[in-house]
Amino acid sequence: MKKTASRFAAWPLLALLWLAGCASTADSDGYYTVQRGDTLYSIGRDFDQSPGNLTAWNRLRNPNDLEVGQRILVRPPGNVVARTGAGQTPRAATPAPARKPAAPARPATKPAAKEDDAPAPADARIDWAWPTQGKSAPSADSYKKGIDIAGSEGQAVQAAAAGKVTYAGHGIRGYGNMVIIKHTSVLLSVYAHNKTITVKEGQTVTRGQQIGTMGNSDTNRVKLYFEIRRNGKPINPMTLLPPR
Questions:
Q1: Mean pLDDT throughout 73-79?
Q2: What does the alpha-carbon distance between residue 97 and residue 95 come to, in Å, rounded to a whole number?
Q3: How far apart are CA 30 and CA 173, in angstroms?
Q4: Cα dist from 203 to 146, 168, 182, whole Å
Q5: Which end of the chain has the lower number of beta carbons within 10 A, N or C?
Q6: Average of pLDDT values for 33-46?
Q7: 230, 242, 37: which is closest to 116 by C-alpha?
Q8: Could you tell me which of 176, 147, 180, 178 has the C-alpha nearest to residue 161?
Q9: Alpha helices per DSSP H over the chain
Q10: pLDDT greater than 60 at residue 12
Q11: Helix (H), strand (E) at residue 156
Q12: Alpha helices by DSSP H, 147-209
């Protein structure tokens, strides 16, 4: 019963991690729903649009005053094409010349590579560092897919890579004082069971910057639980952390 309860307790975290780690996507109408921590600049970067385009298409009076849940048009309206470069305004689109029908595609000469065989995306090759000192081992909790790093109470916990703090608090049962850092549109890292947290949500941190101290909040021994997720799914952090 205890293990089952722990699994249920982890569900809110899984939803939080999935939302934090998923790449920004637009719906079929070309709209994106603003999430906590978004700015017009970050939305434009994710959808390859300039802030000027987004401001014009959505008739924003104050581009710096976005609200969580607000729907933002991130694709050009039907009679407008996007312009590149800051400060340029949209212009009317001109009809594109008719194109010849494409030739039928030929069958592939070899089977497509499996997802597991595909090379890691470029954003997975960022400069990672160990978040703290100590002996590491796979997590003892069956529902956790990261690693436990043993250490001493109060020792420093650092950001494993540069990014933005998307969560800092004690709201998820079974993880204690926890920090989540978003590094790219698809990658984030998790730091749980801290004694103290020294950063705030929305704060930008650098690789190696202290974000807390090791403790035993919501666990039975002093340790840091560390996890890396891609698109909301845990991956083996040992494949990204440098050898030591």
A1: 80
A2: 6
A3: 37
A4: 24, 10, 11
A5: N
A6: 80
A7: 230
A8: 180
A9: 2-21, 40-46, 51-58
A10: no
A11: strand 156-158
A12: none
Residue 238: in which H helix or E strand, if any? none
Integer-rounded Cα radius of gyration of the chain: 22
More confident: 163 or 50 = 163
- If we measure between CA atoms, which residue out of 146, 147, 167 comes closest to residue 212? 167
CA distance 187 to 131: 16
- Type of residue at 30: G
pLDDT tens sequence across 77-99: 875 655 544 334 444 444 445 55
Token pair, residue 135, equals 């002996």
User: What confidence tier does 46 reach under pLDDT thresholds 50, 70, 90?
Assistant: confident
Quote the pLDDT of residue 68.
Answer: 78
Question: Whole-model pTM?
Answer: 0.55
**Per-residue DSSP letters for 88-132?**
---EE--PPPP-PPPPPPPPPSSPPPPGGGSPPPGGGGS----SS
Residues 228/207, Cβ–Cβ less than 8 Å: no
Spatial separation of the C-alpha atoms in residues 189 and 171, rounded to whole Å: 17
pLDDT of residue 89: 42
Rounded Cα–Cα distance for residues 185 and 163 (Å): 10
Q: Tell me the CA end-to-end span of the chain in Å, nearest whole number.
A: 38
Distance CA 121, CA 124 (A): 6
Q: What is the percent of the chain with per-residue pLDDT over 90, rounded to a whole number?
A: 37
Q: Which two tokens stand for residue 190?
A: 């998790």
Of residues 159 and 173, which shows the higher confidence score? 159
pLDDT digits (tens, 9 = 90+) for 108-126: 444 443 443 344 565 657 8
Comparing C-alpha atoms, which of 42, 39, 19, 227 is closest to residue 136?
Answer: 227
Return the DSSP state at 40.
H
